[in-house]
Design goal:
The structure holds 2 protein chains of 2 kinds.
Chain A (H helix, E strand, L loop, with lengths): L1 H31 L6 H17 L4 H23 L8 H23 L12 E4 L2 E4 H23 L1 H11 L1 H6 L4 H27 L7 H14 L3 H22 L2 H18 L4 H4 L6
Antiparallel strand pairs in A: 1-2
Chain B lengths: L2 H4 L1 H21 L2 H25 L8 H19 L3 H24 L4 H20 L7 E2 L2 E2 L24 H24 L1 H11 L1 H6 L4 H27 L9 H14 L5 H18 L6 H15 L4 H19 L1 H6 L1 H8 L1
Antiparallel strand pairs in B: 1-2
Classes of the chains: A mainly alpha, B mainly alpha.
Chain lengths: 288, 351
Amino acid sequence: MDLAVVVLIQVLYAVAGLVIVSAGLAVIFGMMKVINLAHGEFMMLGAYATLGAHQLGLNLWLAMLVVAPLAVGAVGVLLERLVVRRLYGRMVDTMLATWGLSLLLVGIVTSVMGNTTAGVSAPLGSFAVGAYSVSGYTLVIIAVAVVLALTIRWVLLRTPWGLIARGTMQKPEMANALGIHPGRVYATTFAVGAALSGLAGGLLAPLTGVVPTMGGAFVAKAFITVIGGGPAILAGLVGASSLFGAINQLATFLTTPVLGEVALLLAAIVMLRLLPQGITGRFFKGSL
Amino acid sequence: MNRFAQSWHSAALSLAVGAVLLFALPGLLDEYTLLQVTIYAVMSILAVSLAFIWGFGGILCFGQAAFFGLGAYTYALAVMNLGDSTLPFLMAIALPALFAALLGYVIFYGRLSDVYMGVITLTVTLILFNLVNSTAGPEWRIGDAPLGGFNGIPGIPTLNVPGRPDELLSPGALFTLTGVCLLVVYGLLRWLIASKIGRVIVAAKENEQRVLLLGYDARAYKLFCFTVGGAIAGLAGCLFANWGAFTSPTVFGLAQSAQIIIWVIVGGLGTLVGPVVGCVLIQWLTTHIGTQQTFNANLVLGAILLGFVLMVPRGLLPSLGDLVDAGLRRWRQRSPRAAAATPATAEETAA
């Protein structure tokens, strides 16, 4: 019984981790059809922002939940203006340019911070479930993922900004005729996506250790989660995260973490062969 | 497209330059430099493999390093078990080709679009990297050869004269072999591109639907193109394992895949020689960056990739070709007698 609870928590945690890691990419790719291969590096910047702010004496929660998204959002504004804006509509070129960007960011951070692992310790300690103990931070990750998904849904469906953003992505000319500046909407969306990536980096900083190359571990996972999710941003994100997260965690539980990762990636390939349009290309059509 | 680049003159010119280098370099360079040049040639074969499938097949493969790594590991494991290097050499080409055929079947017959193609090839590379990286323990072995995990496989027996396992190739002979491989691969690819199959492959890149309507099975042609690319990358991997007598999981790494793409982008998409030039330039640059401390290699590579995508999207060689074309045209316009004498020139100016 205790074991079942612990495994359930771990599975939820894996799912939540994927939701958090992929949310920023889901917004940028799902809304703007821009494949941001520098996503992992945005997370890395978020982690460094958290680390820096915490070392300057700021409360860890503030550093993670406020400083990291703001800092990376600002970087996102800058990069959208300098690079991404020139390549809208050219999917492959955007992919290549953002890959260049990711190498560039790794290079810059390595030059400035050195190629060493820094870390923040996870807050909240742990609590006992029968004979097992579970880290309290695990529950924080699960809670943040739920709040994040609900917030994205609320913003997109219930606020004027969400309406404007969705409308602009569907028909930029029409939005423009109605007095909305599409360029500004694109820039804002990209910045929001970047901020979400920064938040993910901040949240994961206590779990993974902060190195310039840490982004590489996440970009592929985030990428396949978003692609596997298909056209509906939120339903796809949650659906694909649940599927891949559960497979990853169960395989890890039964074998080793490495094979867990392999199982996740294999599942993604098999799924894309069966559902080339992603999960929401077949199920939950028309949802958000 | 440059007229010259498509004509057989350019193929002959490239082959001639390559042959001259092949004969002249061993006499001109000391052994250490020759070894450096050998790795440039090995990587050039890898660059050509992606140049073919991306530039002519329109298949953007983020995981060309997977086939490269498979080639290296296949050769290493096979030669450590078999002793004689002839069969391992062939296996290192055949196995990656087979793997590419399987992967290509999933991708092309599933009618996955470009983006998904990128994701799947990237994912497969990561799987291989993760798997091989985790095989460090002594229980992971194939026959007599331990897989080595993140430590890699050291002391790989290098190629020998076919049938005589004791007569290993000297570094000079390895250079000649690599150079010959590069030239043969280049020549065969130029021939393939000019053949009917090659024309269908290029046509499928330009407009897949029209090719389908004309009665060609575009999937099969793409699959063939992808498989050939995998075989060539496997050959490069095999030569790489011979070059250093060493291979490690980094051959499967994302950095390796990124490099190949950068070579092609810098040299010029849609040509075969361009990526070779790009490869040599970038390799030379990264070797030199490694010797100084100011700039990080990632930083420079990232900046180059970004700069080329934004400012020179066609790459060095085609852009250079355009400049030469424009120069020639201006020169011909200035001398009306030449223009009148050759009607073809007038056509060219109009086009």
